[in-house]
Amino acid sequence: MTNKIAAFLWYDGAAEEAATFYAATFPDSRVDAVHRAPGDFPAGQQGQVLTVEFTVCGMPFVAMNGGPGHPHSDAVSFQIYTDDQSETDRLWNAIVGNGGSENACGWCKDKWGISWQITPRGLMKAFSHPDRAAAKRGFEAMMTMRKIDVAAIEAAVAGQSAVADA
Do 157 and 134 touch, CB atoms closer than 8 A? Predict the structure, then answer.
């Protein structure tokens, strides 16, 4: 690994499974290396996967099979910027549909407890709209959502009411 910093994530035996899922789900992502324990350790035995180096959207990570007792928290999340509704839907559905759970305002949690913010660039554009009333309408629309609906955000910014999908 040539980077000077990487996000380090603790798993209870699922480090390789999680890294493989992320590599298959997110663009510019891959599993870089799998390291097996050279000896027994508190959460496992010699030869088992100890750490996995992987990349998600170009960002380096290390996952460790550290055992139970250190659950992930919403205090740390990873924000993924999407270019359109299709990409937003694909990533959201991949995480939630693989044993994850929905949360509010574009947040979801994967089955290992990692929090993700699937954030369309259009949402960020709405928040920085020069018309602060329009920005507020976009924000208020987002506050009613789980997965972000780009068309509904755009309609709110424009002062129109969006028609919900049936």
Answer: yes
Q: Summarize pLDDT for 4-53 with one digit per residue, the tens.
A: 999 999 999 999 999 999 999 999 999 999 999 999 999 899 999 999 99
Nearest to residue 155, comparing CAs of 88, 87, 165? 165
The phi and psi torsions of 14 (rounded to 5 degrees) equal -115, 20
Show the tokens assigned to 156: 């709110």
Tell me which long-range contacts 100-106 makes (C-beta under 8 A, separation of at least 24): 102/146, 102/147, 103/74, 103/146, 104/143, 104/145, 104/146, 105/142, 105/143, 105/145, 105/146, 105/148, 106/142, 106/145, 106/146, 106/147, 106/148
Whether residue 48 contacts residue 117, with contact meaning beta carbons closer than 8 Å, is answered with no
Q: Across-strand partners of 107?
A: 117
SS3 of 55, please?
Answer: strand
Give me the domains of the chain, ranges plus CATH numbers. Answer: 1-69 (3.10.180.10), 72-166 (3.10.180.10)
Give every CB contact of residue 110 below 8 A, 6+ residues apart in sequence: 18, 21, 95, 98, 99, 100, 116
